[in-house]
Every structure is written in C-alpha cells, then in structure tokens.
Design brief:
The protein is of the alpha/beta class. The chain contains five helices and five strands, in the order αββααβαβαβ. Strands 3-4-5 form a three-stranded parallel β-sheet, with helices on one face. Strands 1-2 form a two-stranded antiparallel sheet. α5 links the parallel β4 and β5. α4 packs parallel to α5.
C-alpha cells in the first residue's frame, strides 16, 4: 500500500507521477481491471496503477455475471461502470458532470464498447437544479 498523499513519504513517492502528461492512455497494470485502457488526468493515478480501491473492485467484480444489470448512479469517470462492462454486465451509468461524463464515454468506448450513459443526476424529485463540478476528483 502506498502511504497517504498527505504524508511526506506519500508526496515523495507520488512526485514522479506528476511528470506523466494528462490525456495519455495507459494500460491498467493490475487488479480486476488489468489490461483496461485508462486516460491519465481523468482521476487519480491509482486507477491505472491498479491501487485504487483494490478490495472493493475485487468484491464488485466477483458479483458480476453476464446477465447482471448494473445501474451506476454517480458514475464519475467510469471505474465501476467499465469494470461491470468488462465482466459482461448490462449497464446504465448516470453522471451529470460534463467533464466526468466525457471521460466516462471515452473509457467505455476504449474498453467495452457502448453502454447506456445518461448525462443527468438521479434524485428523489423531478426537476432541474444547478450543478457545481467543484468536487471533481480529476488530477
């Protein structure tokens, strides 16, 4: 496990990753998504390094069967959506943030072909609301 990014050793270990340009397509190195293609700068480098939520991704992958239907609400850039698609699930992904939705589409196309992407939020009421992308995890 890589030390937390807030520690000195964590910052030192992550420093070389800053040299990798954004929008480079990398191959996921390990874990359930091994071999998938991933765009740098879409989210943290842990996804393509195979260190992002390894236990959760392994459990999730173990539950996916070809006849599984997955609704990914708040799909972000598509980590769980792509994994579900790679394991043969029928998928509907919801993502309201235009930046994240664009990466989601790209990751889907590169790894599993097309799946249904709804560029909208999911909530308890019907209507329109303002959306702020300030919480984006892109780096």
């Amino acid at each position: 496990m890589i030390p937390n990014a807030d520690t000195l050793i964590g910052r030192i270990l992550r420093w070389p990753l800053r040299l990798i340009p954004r929008n480079v397509i990398m191959t996921v190195l390990r874990g359930p998504m091994k071999g998938a293609r991933w765009i740098t700068g879409s989210t943290n480098h842990g996804v393509w390094l195979g260190t992002y939520e390894p236990e959760m991704l392994a459990v999730f992958a173990g539950e996916i069967k070809p006849d599984t239907v997955v609704y990914d609400v708040g799909a972000n850039v598509g980590v769980y959506s792509v994994l579900a698609g790679m394991y043969g699930a029928t998928l509907v992904a919801f993502e309201p943030n235009p930046r994240e939705c664009s990466f989601l589409r790209s990751h889907a196309t590169m790894n599993v072909g097309e799946f249904r992407i709804v560029a909208a939020a999911v909530g308890a009421t019907v209507g329109h609301a303002r959306f702020s992308g300030s919480g984006s995890t892109g780096r």
